[in-house]
Amino acid sequence: MSGSQGATAAKPRKINLRTPDVMAKVQEQVESHYRSTITERIRTCGGTLQVRDTAVLLAKQFGFCYGVERAIDLAYAARKVFADRRLFILGEIIHNPLVNEQIAAMGIKNIIGQSREANIEDLTSEDVVIVPAFGTDLETLAKINERGCQIVDTTCGDVMSVWKRVRQNAMENVTSIIHGKAEHEETKATASRALGSGHGHYLVVLTLADTDYVCDYIRHGGNKQELLDRFKDAHSPGFDPDLHLRAVGVANQTTMLRGETEEVQRRIRAAVLDRDGSAEGPKSFRFFDTICGATQERQEALRVLLSEKMDLLLVVGGYNSSNTSHLAEMGEAKLPTYFIRGADKLENRSKITHFNLHKKAEITTENWLPEGPLVIGITAGASCPNNLIEETILRVYELRGVPATEILEVSAQLAGEG
């Protein structure tokens, strides 16, 4: 179908994918792919498993959140309901390699290329396009609608709450300062909403150093071109800091560290008040708490876990997962922490391959697993399925000389199943 034909395509009717019969089949399939008996047993008995001289402590909250579960369910349901149609997805459904491999294995094709742009030229009105949990930008969405494609939107509700706030900012001529990663799918989607009807503006800050630079500009002005160069590809078209930093509202990528987003908000508010005074300043500043609930819960659960005496921490999840990366950051500040994609990265008792957040690459560490009695903490991001956590637990014990059969037996006894 040509682009002009796609533009005249009739809008597809809405279809309820979450019918009882479809969801019963979906749940059976999802559980077969991602469920973990051992992980559920440990969770049931307080999050601690002691076998011989090795203890594993699980964070109280970890793994799939509701938004991730819903996105996966909808993708699986779409495959069942639209069994005879081509299915596509705008990037990764979530940031976890195992889950994305399963999606691809079901014949759902990723149409985001290396350029990070959607390849939609060949889409027709007979095709189904899945919007992932992060959402997508308005321009891409409009092009897909023009083609008349059936859209299955799995965007997380917490993400849509941020969109509501930045749209409101645009309506009030308030620039949205977004705390996030400019290249992240969610931040791109949020930025597109921050434009409002076309007159809104945004600026994306990642670090507190970025924030301090902006704060200094708010207080004193500065070199406009230098600011635009520093935030290249991280601001709206036509952004003029002399005009568009007069009234600002802080928003965020929902998976950022809560404490850091709060600090971004505090510093920018202080800069506006310093510039405009305590009477007028509040009129030029907006802030809404839009860190997602699951991200908060997992960060708080890790804080509690880090108060325990442990020898090391394993953080399990996709390397491009923002919320998982922040858990690894928290761990690194307290004790030896290894951010791994799965159990296969625990190569042997002497060697572990893990992701280094600072180098943004996998590295190998020797002599990572101490001898003698050991306490190991484990947590996982909101996009990590329980079966990967189970595999990690079993691999840890295997390296400590404990077979899987013994772990199954002990965990069953602890859960009252033995």
Model description:
44% of the residues lie in helices and 16% in strands. By secondary structure, it is α/β, with parallel strands linked by helices. The strands form four sheets. The protein has a five-stranded mixed beta sheet, with helices on both faces. The chain has a four-stranded parallel beta sheet with strand order 4-3-5-6. A four-stranded parallel beta sheet has the order 8-7-9-10, sandwiched between helices. α12 (258-280) links the parallel β9 (248-252) and β10 (285-287). α2 (20-34) crosses α4. The longest helix is centred in the middle third of the chain and has 23 residues, at 258-280. The relative contact order is 0.14.
Short description:
This protein has 418 residues and is of the alpha/beta class. Helices cover 44% and strands 16% of the residues.
CATH architecture of the largest domain: 3-Layer(aba) Sandwich
Strand order of the largest sheet: 1-2-15-11-12
Mean pLDDT: 93
CATH fold topology of the largest domain: Cobalt-precorrin-4 Transmethylase, domain 1
Which secondary structure elements does this structure contain, and how are they paired or packed?
Layout: H1 3-7, H2 20-34, H3 37-44, E1 48-51, E2 54-58, H4 66-81, E3 87-89, H5 97-105, E4 108-110, E5 128-131, H6 138-146, E6 150-153, H7 157-171, E7 175-179, H8 185-194, E8 202-205, H9 208-220, H10 224-230, H11 241-244, E9 248-252, H12 258-280, E10 285-287, H13 293-306, E11 312-316, H14 322-332, E12 337-340, E13 351-356, E14 361-366, E15 374-380, H15 386-399, H16 404-414
Parallel strand pairs: 2-15, 3-4, 3-5, 5-6, 7-8, 7-9, 9-10, 11-12, 11-15
Antiparallel strand pairs: 1-2, 13-14
